[in-house]
Specification:
The complex is a heterodimer. By secondary structure, chain A is an alpha+beta fold. Chain A has helices spanning about 20-30, 70-75, 75-90, 125-135, 165-175, 180-190, 195-220; strands at about 5-10, 40-45, 50-55, 100, 110. In chain A, strand 2 and strand 3 form a beta hairpin. In chain A, helix 2 (about 70-75) packs across helix 3, helix 3 (about 75-90) crosses helix 5 (about 165-175) and helix 5 packs antiparallel against helix 7. Chain B is of the alpha+beta class. In chain B, helix 5 packs parallel to helix 7. Chain B has helices at about 60-75, 95-100, 125-135, 145-160, 210-230, 245-250, 250-260, 270-285; strands spanning about 5-10, 20-30, 30-35, 40, 45-50, 80, 90, 105-115, 170-180, 180-195, 195-200, 235-240, 265-270. The chains are: A alpha+beta, B alpha+beta. The interface of A and B includes residues 59, 63, 95, 97 and 102 of A.
Chain lengths: ~230, ~290
């Protein structure tokens, strides 16, 4: 049996950090037990590396965009988990078309993919600077007033998740991520376009946010526009 | 005057060939929205009958998800454009553009035109029905083969040991002379060895009324011809249907089954016990 995968490579113009972003975020997302398909590095015929993610959509037909209101209603914990994970890795490009939910499945099934604009962002040579600037920010709350680090899309779940009931569960999981896991995930991504200081910056960024995510969220409660009553301890 | 526009939902089976097929129509006016999609259950918008999905659709799962997605999108009071920007009210013309932005790969929505007449809110369902009949149904000439029916039928026959009977045949030909003309009819299955001990005819129930009538007329012609020439008897001939209670409650389906039931016995394999009893009895017929 052959299974298909979706493959990507670094693109100087659109996604210069594509492979390291995808690799690190894929590993971290799976560690949290979020429904991120298995990921890895494969070689092109020319020898160049490709990031590969197992294709979960074997039928080969395009899937519809996610109805985020339904998603929050049907999968409240996973919706919160995805939102908090994207804050952790400062994924500024989460929209209704780069995750999927099969609402007709039993149970409904979410699949999460595309982290090419997270962590080091999408501006060549600016990875370390982005991590420094976003250290204490949400990194996903783009509005017309916000600078480029927060991306081109405001996170599609940021205005849809309407309760923080599941936040503690996911904050605890993120906080439980071991140092070695973060360190090795970032070091293993080094050959695919990272300078040594960028690896160090990513490790520091992820560890710091792992430990301060609750505080970062509390400092930006106003951005979670659908949450009327907060229960998350300050 | 209210401008009533309509969009076509299209499915592209092969993105390389790019040969879109119409699968639904969405009628929009500031007064309301009506939509019709192929294979949707009557009166259950957004729910797709897997057996009625057109044969050219290569992923039933994706098809069901898209119909559900479009239904949810048009049932709301507003939509957030996928490309970003402010929420658009469903009564705003911008809603149409937002819907078109949902196009993705095999599934697209295109602006197909305007209705020139002034359409009231009450008339929207009729307009949707007319456009659906005109633009969608007539273009799906081939009725999907009911794979579920075939598989269920086969598995029940296996379970009842009928297929192990020494005189069991698939696609069994029976000949007779009708008004001086030699005819050959094929039964789906039979137990026969010269003498026809049992004849089974599968009767799929298509969603489209015209197709159902066509199937019924062909089957009735076959049974009547064979009965009139004494090639078969009604008690040894069995019409196999897979009809849900909902399908049986439809006038045309009920009428068809009652008509054919005057010429043969009818076994609804949707009722597993009934089917196993029939096939089990036949499996016990002496081999000859």
């Amino acid at each position: 049996m052959y299974l298909s995968a979706v493959a990507k490579e670094n693109s100087a113009a659109a996604a210069p950090y594509c492979i390291p972003n995808e690799l690190i975020c894929g590993e971290l997302g799976r560690f949290l037990r979020l429904p991120v398909p298995p990921v890895g590095i494969v070689s092109q015929a020319s020898g160049g590396p490709l990031f590969a993610s197992l294709n979960f959509n074997l039928a080969g037909n395009s899937l519809p965009p996610v109805n985020v209101a339904n998603c929050v209603q049907v999968l409240p914990s996973l919706s919160a988990g995805l939102l908090l994970f994207d804050i952790w890795v400062a994924n500024c490009d989460r929209h209704a078309e780069n995750f999927s939910v099969d609402f007709l499945g039993t149970p409904p099934q979410m699949n999460i993919f595309d982290h090419s604009h997270a962590l080091f962002g999408y501006a060549g040579g600016q990875g370390e600077a982005r991590l420094t600037r976003l250290r204490d920010r949400l990194g996903i709350s783009w509005t017309t007033n916000n600078p480029v680090d927060s991306g081109r899309h405001r996170h599609c779940l940021l205005d849809a998740v309407n309760m923080d009931t599941h936040f503690t569960f996911w904050l605890d999981r993120i906080r439980a991520t071991p140092d070695f896991y973060i360190e090795e995930a970032c070091q293993d991504a080094a050959p695919y376009g990272l300078a040594p200081q960028e690896v160090t910056a990513a490790i520091g960024f992820l560890k710091a946010r792992r430990d301060t995510l609750r505080q970062i969220i509390n400092n930006h409660r106003a951005e979670f526009s659908a949450i009327q009553a907060w229960s998350l301890p300050i | 005057m209210n401008t009533t526009k309509y969009l076509l939902a299209k499915y592209i089976p092969d993105l390389h060939r790019f040969e879109p097929r119409n699968i639904g129509v969405i009628v929009w006016s500031p007064l309301g929205i009506e939509a019709r999609f192929l294979a949707e259950y009557p009166n259950r918008p957004g729910e797709v009958d897997g057996r009625s999905i057109p044969g050219f659709v290569t992923s039933a799962s994706a098809y069901k998800q898209w119909v559900r997605y479009w239904r949810d999108a048009i049932s709301g009071t507003s939509i957030r454009p996928l490309g970003g920007g402010d929420v658009v009210s469903s009564s705003s013309p911008g809603f149409i553009e937002a819907l078109q932005q949902t196009a993705r790969g095999n599934f697209v929505v295109v602006d197909a035109g305007s209705v020139l007449d002034d359409i009231s809110e009450e008339e929207l369902p009729t307009v949707a029905d007319q456009l659906f009949a005109q633009l969608i149904e007539v273009n799906t000439a081939e009725e999907p083969r009911d794979i579920g029916f075939d598989e269920l039928c086969d598995s029940l026959m296996v379970r009842a040991q009928l297929k192990h009977h020494r005189n069991f045949h698939d696609r069994y030909p029976v000949r007779c002379t009708v008004r001086g003309v030699d005819e050959e009819f094929l039964f789906s299955h039979a137990i026969a060895n010269g003498t026809l001990e049992r004849a089974y005819q599968r009767f799929p129930i298509p969603k489209r009324k015209t197709q159902l009538q066509k199937n019924r007329d062909a089957t009735a012609w076959m049974l009547e011809s064979l009965l009139n020439t004494n090639v078969i008897t009604a008690d040894k001939t069995v019409l196999l249907v897979d009809a849900t209670p909902e399908q049986i409650s439809q006038t045309e389906v009920d009428k068809s089954i009652r008509l054919l039931g005057t010429m043969s016995r009818v076994v609804n394999i949707h009722n597993e016990a009934e089917a196993l009893a029939e096939f089990g009895d036949a499996a016990q017929l002496p081999a000859h």
